[in-house]
Amino acid sequence: MLKSAGVGAGDEVIVSAYGNVEVAEAVLAVGARPVFADIDEATYCLDPEAAEAALTSRTAAIVAVPRFGYLAGVRPLQELGRRRGLLVVEHREGDGRPDRSVLAQRQVRAAYLDRRLTGVRTPGACAGHTYQEYVVRVPGNGRPDRDAFARAVRRRGVECQVPVKTPVHRMHAFRQEVCLPETERAADETLALPVGGPLSRRDLQRVVAACNALGGLLQPAF
């Protein structure tokens, strides 16, 4: 889409550093330069104000990624693109919008976890959230707290994943000296708990019991 729109050498494209290294690679592949902007704390999408602050006379496009099923996070970026006359490319992850039965199942499970989880920050309410992933925050003094929490949850038989281990701007091929506090915080705090697939009520109860039994944060293991 970038190539067909004429984006190329000398152009800049605003992208997120919170995951999706393939987006930055695609920008390089057409000869343009990826410029990283910070994310919105609630939706994990590019923050429109941060994206606008990163615009220059060389900006040709913005790539919007609806992370974890937060589809509504893309709309403010589309509005920014219309206002500033820029191409906004939407890069969909995974299954995009699932069918109604799958979506309803995820939403019911997410609501169950929302009501019962303690010690972690549950996902914020957002219109159109498809819960492609159920991502919580384990806030504390940085990466060791979240990682210790994840190890302890796994020992209790609950699968969980760190959705973004290293932001793209920290990677050698894309390293930039840029201030992205929300991106850094999200990379250190986020943890994806199971909400899709063949989960029973007992499985969900196990997730809640494992998380709540930890009493919130854990200290780093030395």
Automatic annotation (TrEMBL):
Keywords: Aminotransferase, Pyridoxal phosphate, Transferase
SUPFAM superfamilies linked: PLP-dependent transferases (SSF53383)
Pfam family, one: DegT_DnrJ_EryC1
Domain of life: Bacteria
One MF annotation (Gene Ontology) recorded for this entry: transaminase activity
Similarity comment: Belongs to the DegT/DnrJ/EryC1 family.
Name of the protein described by the UniProt record: DegT/DnrJ/EryC1/StrS family aminotransferase
Species of provenance: Streptomyces enissocaesilis
Lineage of producing organism: Bacteria, Bacillati, Actinomycetota, Actinomycetes, Kitasatosporales
